[in-house]
Specification:
The radius of gyration is 20 Å and the shape is globular. The N terminus is likely disordered. The strands form 3 sheets. Strands 5, 6, 7, 8, 9, 10, 13 and 14 form an 8-stranded mixed sheet that branches. The chain has a 4-stranded antiparallel sheet with strand order 2-3-1-4. A two-stranded antiparallel sheet has the order 11-12. The relative contact order is 0.14. The protein is of the alpha/beta class. The longest helix has 20 residues. α9 crosses α10. The protein has 11 helices and 14 strands.
Length: 324
């Protein structure tokens, strides 16, 4: 079981405004309790270089692997312990990591590429790609065929992205360095907008989130996210698929952004997401006096307590071939 960190209240503080907001959105005590527990480590097997069975064979002597139900290449990983009972957590030091056989990736983070479902030979855009967990997963599903444009707007972030692309043996990818909102042209079969966000679903691995959180930051990020989802949708071919995802649980950054897109594009169609053995929570249909389009009920909202993961939000949108 994850270790409980609630015995250190002097180090972890929830702002009252945060408590009030999240008490209105979910079961506050459950959310707080799970947020104070360590996050389970998880990996994704890179089938461009190896097979799931080969990785299981290589790791099974020292590591327990539990399948992630919604991702056929995903596993929660825990060290079995040495003779003194010590358990390793340094998965990044494994030879399998250096060889590009595995990518250390949170289990909920594997969902957006699964939902996007890119195919070999397609044109795909990952608008906010660094450090590359989802971009490399997309390339894997494309079988290294077609073209994947992996973009990020910061040079340092692009360096990490490039290193991971090379380590995973990917050669169908073009890296770009620009603000996502400057893309233009309906060129892509698939677009992923894994938007920069306030990260309130990631408290379990970054308590800094609690310190920097404030409603003004949420509103600023929401404005950026609306630009990005608009741009992503405009870059889709008719019949194409856009996935919008965040690791935040803020309605203004999640359902509110999807509602914005639906209100501006008559040819946007929200699709229901169904994944194997995934516990989901109801979408937020209204917040702070604003009622969202009822179609947002098709979005995937995951609280940390639902599946013992990060919190995550995913929406799948298609562009109609014949609007109207």
């Amino acid at each position: 079981m994850p270790k409980d960190l609630s015995s250190a209240p002097d180090k972890i503080e929830f702002k009252q405004a945060f408590i009030d907001r999240y008490s209105a959105l979910t079961d506050w005590e459950m959310f707080k309790d799970i947020s104070l527990q360590f996050l389970r480590r998880s990996i994704r097997v890179n089938t461009l270089k190896t097979t799931v069975e080969e990785v299981k064979k290589r790791l099974s002597a020292d590591w327990n692997l539990v399948p992630v139900p919604w991702c056929r290449e995903g596993f929660w990983i825990e060290h079995k312990g040495d003779c003194s009972g010590h358990k390793r957590r340094d998965i990044g030091n494994l030879p399998e990591h250096a060889l590009g056989y595995i990518f250390i990736q949170e289990a909920a983070s594997m969902i957006p590429p699964v939902v996007l479902d890119p195919k070999a030979g397609e044109m795909v855009l990952d608008m906010c790609a660094s450090p590359g967990s989802k971009a490399t997963q997309i390339a894997q599903y494309m079988q290294n065929k077609g073209i994947l444009v992996a973009n990020d707007y910061k040079y340092d972030r692009n360096k990490a992205l490039g290193i991971n692309i090379q380590r995973m043996g990917i050669h169908n990818t073009v890296q770009t360095l620009m603000h996502g909102r400057y893309f233009s042209g309906n060129l892509f079969d698939c677009v992923l907008v894994d938007a920069p966000c306030s990260g309130t679903g990631t408290i379990r691995k970054s308590f800094k989130t609690l310190k920097i959180w404030n409603p003004n930051m949420v509103r600023r990020l929401s404005a950026t996210q609306k630009q990005l989802i608009d741009t992503g949708f405009k870059n889709l071919k008719p019949g194409g698929t856009l996935v919008y995802s965040t690791c935040t649980l803020e309605p203004e950054e999640d359902e509110g952004v999807v509602d914005h897109l639906l209100s501006r594009h008559d040819d946007a169609r929200l699709e229901k997401i169904t994944l194997n053995r995934l516990v989901r929570s109801s979408a937020v249909t209204s917040f702070n006096g604003i009622t969202f389009n009822k179609e947002v009920n098709k979005c995937l909202r995951i609280w940390p307590q639902d599946n013992d993961t990060e919190g995550f939000f995913v929406a799948k949108i298609t562009k109609a071939r014949n609007p109207g």
